[in-house]
Design brief:
Layout lengths: L6 E4 L7 H7 L5 E5 L6 H4 L5 E4 L11 E4 L8 H11 L4 E5 L6 H8 L1 H7 L3 E5 L3 E6 L4 E4 L4 E5 L5 E7 L5 E6 L15 E8 L2 E6 L3
Parallel strand pairs: 1-2, 1-5, 2-3, 3-4, 5-6
Antiparallel strand pairs: 6-7, 7-13, 8-12, 9-13, 10-11, 10-12
Length: about 210
């Protein structure tokens, strides 16, 4: 892990409860606002350290570092923001405003987690109802404060799945994209554990049922 604080990449999706989100992130983090993500600046009560995008949705902010991107490009503004966070040395990246609105945008933003994971770094999406991350061989923990959690095979078949401390435990399980039976599990004790021997899964921890 680096000695740098987490980088927060803010996208233009939905943020329904700014107060709740502010409790879950540190204002000491390095904030990268991606184009339309600038609509959340006031609600998050945090100026950008960096703004990136083609700025077709929001005006270019004043008084901050800006990277202006062409409108026609392969990388989305969000992917460029994530790449910039990695380039600047951050190995923990929290993404806000990734879900809600257009489903293609939401899915594309969720798969930013896979890009971060492929670099051996830690990525998480936080929205008003859940946190989303990738689980592989490294064990992940789900605390009791999350009443419901789900495992989604979003990257192909996942094998050797272990779930412990949950209402529905699993030993050497397999989940495939065409049979998603890992949805709506519950923490049975104080904390549940999950890991995957082969492949990876999306772990969605819901703040509310």
């Amino acid at each position: 892990m680096s000695n740098l604080a987490c980088a927060v990449v803010v996208l233009g999706g939905s943020i329904e409860n700014y107060e709740e989100i502010r409790k879950k992130i540190s204002k000491d983090s390095y904030f990268i606002y991606c184009d339309r993500g600038l609509i959340h600046e006031k609600g998050l009560d945090r100026r950008p350290d960096l703004a990136v995008g083609d700025f077709d949705s929001c005006p270019i902010p004043e008084g901050t570092e800006v990277v202006t991107l062409p409108r026609e490009k392969d990388d989305t503004d969000g992917l460029y923001g994530v790449k910039e966070a990695i380039r600047r040395g951050y190995d923990e990246i929290t993404i806000l405003g990734a879900t809600g609105g257009r489903i293609d945008h939401s899915l594309g933003n969720i798969y930013l987690l896979d890009y971060i994971y492929s670099k051996g770094l830690t990525g998480i999406i936080i929205d008003s109802s859940s946190s989303i991350e990738i689980v592989g061989k490294e064990k992940k923990y789900i605390e009791k404060c999350y009443p419901v959690f789900s495992l989604i095979a979003a990257f192909g078949k996942a094998e050797g799945i272990e779930i412990r401390g949950a209402k529905y435990n699993l030993v050497n399980g397999t989940i495939e994209p065409n049979f998603q039976y890992g949805i709506s599990n519950e923490v049975d004790k104080s904390v549940a554990e999950v890991w995957v021997e082969k492949g990876k899964l999306l772990l969605i921890k819901n703040w509310r049922e």
